[in-house]
Amino acid sequence: MTRSRSRPARPSTTDRRPTFERFLASRFRWVTGGLVALHVALCVALFDPKIHTGGDSVTYVLLAESVLEAGDGYSLSLEPGPPEAHTKYPPGYPILLAPLVAAFGRNFVVLKLLSMAFTAGAVLVFCVYARRGRDPVPWLCLALAFAVSPGVIDYSRWMLSEAPFLFFTLAALWLLREDEETGGIGTTFWLALAASIAGFYMRSIGALLLAGASLSYLLRREWRKFVVHGVVGVGLTIPWLVRNQLVTGSTTPYLEEFLLENVYAPEAGQLDFAGMVGRFLTNGWLYATRELPRTLVGSDSSWSGNLLVVSIAVAVCLMALVGLVRGLRDRPNAGGLYLILTCAAIMLFQTSVNDVRYLVPLIPLILVYGADGAGALTDRVARLGGRAAALAARASHLPAFTMSLLVALALGAHAARIPPNLEMMAGYNAGDRYAGYASAWRNFFEAARWIEENAPPDAVVTVRKPRLFNAVADRRVRLYPYSTNADSVLAVVHETDLVLIDALFPTTRMYLLPALQQQPDDFFVAHQTDPPVTWVLGVTDAARLANP
User: Fold this and answer.
1) Of 179, 204, 221, 452, which sees the most CB atoms within 10 A?
2) C-alpha–C-alpha distance, residues 166 and 146, integer Å
3) Domain ranges (residues) in the chain
């Protein structure tokens, strides 16, 4: 009797995952498209057509105009005299704006759409970046948390370099991770390097991504990639630094600002080593408990100070730290090193200028490492065995739950902010160009418009926000010195024709007003607004404006 041989069982081709997970896995492109569409819808609902009150926003427009102006080079024409070469902001973003400025002029609504396009592109890249190594549901929760992130959406509506910088650095991080799987120098390597260099020309701090990538190659002993990346990276970024050195004698103004105790009070001097350590610890606390909560619910949301929101932000920080340590321990990578270098840089920068904008490019990494950290904590509990292991089994979806909590928080904050924003846009569309501004800002712009309509084209104005004022009133400007020495302040004021005294900035009350009060007969009231009063003073020794 012949013994029958049992055939080996064929591997099952049936996907036993739940229907929803199978749908996510098979419809990745459609789901990604839906997330991008959701992001754009929220951007539109929270859009702000008005000019940003920060000076950086209009500076990029002015620089874009200089790119289009033959013979002026990359410069600003703010103060009296010839254009002054600009060295602070790299030319990448102004170059991107230049075609739109050439076609539409200072149409801020059109120019802001470029930022929205870049944040939508960042959502697309993040969906691909976050997919590797994750099951469909945790991936969806993570991608959704980024797509609805208030921190990202807030910077889709401003003419600032954060949106393109986010896009290019995220694209570089994705390509660098893909390059880790290849042995030689190929297309992915070069695309990653190109994206990193593009990021540097959006914002100078992008140099830290180049440094992080080179360091990752070094730590992984990929010598050829390390040398080529370093040589080409330096070769393509150094022209900007050399140009600045030749023009001003300094590669970047940021280095000097790092050392000052307070950029708005330079007379306070520079920090010593102990002061830098104190600043690092102070900034770390402020970013975890003030700026990250604003990132999670919106920079202008009243929720950001809520104890629950602050607690969630701190928990996310801790989980991201766990995920970062675990990731770097397993394999040195550009993303983790870039995150460390950038956090160190912003923790050492001026406490007085802390802002959500410095966290925006880090949001993808904070979310990814936060999810990884939540998973690592679950694994650690599972290893303890017993009841702890049972608890870990119930908490196996902790990464998805954490991201879902951030999604719920973001959507709740959006729901609270969208109705008043739609009301503001309705007022703007009805003709109120200052809809949504605080009264003091309304008066600032009203005074600027008065000067535009009543002062000669060659008038020079002393003002606290010179770049913003120039963009609105198209007049040359001088910024008064941040000094308690009245003579130094008056020396600048007497070179101008008008003085705008705002109701906004402490520096105006601290430096400008005391100096003017030293010589009250040198000035006369040319215009004043309703309360909170903004004054326009004429300078009496300016003969051409003696009878405005």
Assistant:
1) 179
2) 12
3) 439-545
